[in-house]
Input
Amino acid sequence: MDHSKLRVNGKRLQSTLEQMAKIGGTPGGGVQRLTLSDEDKQARDLFVKWLKEIDCEITIDEMGNIFGRRAGRNNALAPVMSGSHIDSQPKGGRFDGILGVMGALEVMRTLHENKVQTERPMVIVDWTNEEGSRFAPAMVGSGVWAGALKLDWVYDRKDIAGKRLEDELARIGYKGTAPCRNFPVHGYYEFHIEQGPMLERQKKLIGAPKGILCLHWYDIYLTGEANQVGPTPMEGRHDALVATAEMILKVRELPGRMGGNMVATVGEIQNYPNSRNIIPDRVHFTVDIRSWDDDLALRAWDLLHTDCEDIAARHGCPIKIEETWRVSHSPFDEKLVQRVLDAADELGYSNMPWVSGAGHDASYTNHVCPTAMIFVPSIGGRSHVEIENTRWEDCEAGCNVLLHCLLKAAMEK
Ligand code: GLV
Ligand code: MN
Ligand code: MN
Output
């Protein structure tokens, strides 16, 4: 058979994604499928059922990563792997992550129905907790698999209600027994929406990121002094929220101060006791710093750290700072990136090299095996929102690029 003529079934991919979007579907048209929630379990169960239908061998490891393996002619060879994540943000969209898992499934279904036998085995993967919004940090499934994070440390991460990650993994029935450790992989391709505006602005269909920015996460805790807001004079207050407000503005100023392609964000804040007539005595907030230049991001943190200490001292609010997580910037394998661009050319799709500001499990797989990603446009450049959207025909096009990248790699002896 002439494999160059093979194409995925765009309608089937659409219907698969639509079925998944019902699990945790929100009234605003997005999804809420927080990691290790009942919705995550339901979506995992459906994914496993679909894998079995195409005769994949299922392995679930200690981190709950799900691997579906399709045999090749020579199963002694390292497999080609593709996947992403099923979990979502609290008010997330219908494409982030799930497109890469269902895209890889659509590729396998296409090979299955066309009875294509590849030289190497192929593996689809759903990585546990890519988002990191319920349990920080993000990308822990791939992080432990790649040997960059310690299993016990990850197991002990707690959500806002104090539930442990390991316990929640067991509760939903996905604490597997296979050791979570990397195995030889011939190449990993992750298919994803861009989550930014550049493909749309440049009027290109396919993006091939040269890599992913570094991601540095910090958690800052402030203690103030609670009091009745009416009788307490403005002078001499120890208002943990006002101190936080000054710190947030310092975060906002950081990229301008540092130059380069840095972004810095405070996205989460907890204020206690959170009553309009009590001076706040406890605040927790997060800082996210990203850049292609790891040193620049570290220098930015040094400045911010000093600023936060100074502000805290001025307000008389003791501060505790946790350096929660750092992933260095991840330059992908040039040969694989070029293969994405070439596959797009061969299929007649416009394309461009790009860079990923969003974090992906590909950052960690890149530590242990050649890695690349395939991006398709996000309408209006919106993501991590309920209205996140990508045209169905663009999903199909990206999936065809994935098919041909995987096929080429899987045919290599
Ligand atoms: C992951 O979704 C991230 O970029 O934070
Ligand atoms: Mn994602
Ligand atoms: Mn995401």
